[in-house]
Design goal:
This protein is of the alpha+beta class. The protein has a single domain, classed as Cysteine protease Prp (Alpha-Beta Plaits), CATH 3.30.70. Helix content is about 40%, strand content about 30%. Strands 3-4-2-1-5 form a five-stranded mixed beta sheet, covered by helices on one side. The relative contact order is 0.26.
């Protein structure tokens, strides 16, 4: 199962997220749940960096793990894309509840 955690600051703005694990929906290379969660997450990270010029405290991606935490000064301008990612992953979770779970901290 992919476990997604969205982290919030004191003003209830998303300050970062992590994805851990594998969806185990299909065999390696054919897992549509894993591919959609990964593609959307990496796409948002790239858009934040390249289109919004957002800086990151932490930005990591390796097999079974993606994390991005926004620098405090850039949190406000990152909200549209981070909320878009959250909504997208929530939709995937609704369709595949055994394969992806969303948490908030």
């Amino acid at each position: 199962m992919i476990k997604v955690t969205f982290y919030y600051n004191d003003k209830f703005k998303i300050k970062g997220f992590e994805l851990r694990g594998h969806a185990n929906y299909g065999e390696f290379g054919y897992d549509i749940v894993c591919a959609s969660a990964t593609t959307n997450s990496i796409g948002v990270i790239n858009s934040l960096e390249e289109l919004q010029n957002v800086g990151f405290e932490v930005q990591e991606a390796e097999e079974g793990f993606i994390a991005a935490f926004i620098k405090e000064d850039d949190i406000e301008k990152s909200q549209l894309l981070l909320n878009h990612l959250k909504r997208t992953l929530e939709e995937i979770s609704r369709e595949y509840p055994k394969n992806i779970k969303i948490y908030e901290k």
